[in-house]
Amino acid sequence: MINIGINEQDRKEITAGLNQVLADSYSLYLKTHSFHWNVTGPMFTSLHQLFEEQYTELATAVDLIAERIRALGSRALGSYSAYAALTGIKEDHGITDANEMLSELLKGQEVIIRNIRSLYPLVNQANDEASADLLTQRIQTHEKTAWMLRSLLAV
């Protein structure tokens, strides 16, 4: 039995939300990595490097999110099918245009931002400061990345 000051129902709801963020983050990781491999054009070098920085950051993030889920006593999802069933991030279906890649990654970042933001009322009500801290760090990273992608797209 887990006795950390957060009741079982709140822990289950929080971890369901964190598993959503995990699914979104892993899906965006895969998409970003694919774009890293497949980008072409005059911005190849800069985008190849940018996408590598982004997927590397996401790889670290999925580990932190999964470990928080485990600390709360739930199972962290770990399969493509589980992620695909939850995520709102569309898979890469052969995009080759660099601007379209940037636009798709921006949409993915914004999906994650919205999903993270929706968890705040629950973690605050449960006094789950550790999850709130993780979510705050994630939202800061995703908002900064979204800003950079918007800047590259000039939107």
As a percent range, the share of helical residues equals over 70%
Span between termini: 50 Å
The CATH architecture designation is Up-down Bundle
Task: Report the structural category.
Answer: mainly alpha
Protein name: Dps family protein
Family: Belongs to the Dps family.
GO molecular function: ferric iron binding; oxidoreductase activity, acting on metal ions
InterPro entries: DPS_DNA-bd, DPS_DNA-bd_CS, Ferritin-like, Ferritin-like_SF, Ferritin_DPS_dom
Q: How does the SSE layout of this entry go?
A:
Layout: H1 8-38, H2 44-71, H3 80-86, H4 98-125, H5 129-153
Helix pairs in contact: 1-2, 1-3, 1-4, 2-5, 4-5
List keywords for this structure.
single chain; 77% helix; Ferritin; mainly alpha; 155 residues
Question: What would your notes on this structure say?
Answer:
One of its GO terms (molecular function) is ferric iron binding. It comes from Shewanella violacea (strain JCM 10179 / CIP 106290 / LMG 19151 / DSS12). InterPro entries: DPS_DNA-bd (IPR002177), DPS_DNA-bd_CS (IPR023188), Ferritin-like (IPR012347), Ferritin-like_SF (IPR009078), Ferritin_DPS_dom (IPR008331). The chain has a single domain (8-153), classed as Ferritin, CATH 1.20.1260.10. It has 5 helices and no strands. It is mainly α and 155 residues long. The protein starts with 7 loop residues before the first helix and ends with a helix. Helix 1 packs across helix 3. The model has no long low-confidence stretch (mean pLDDT 96). The chain has helices spanning 8-38, 44-71, 80-86, 98-125, 129-153.
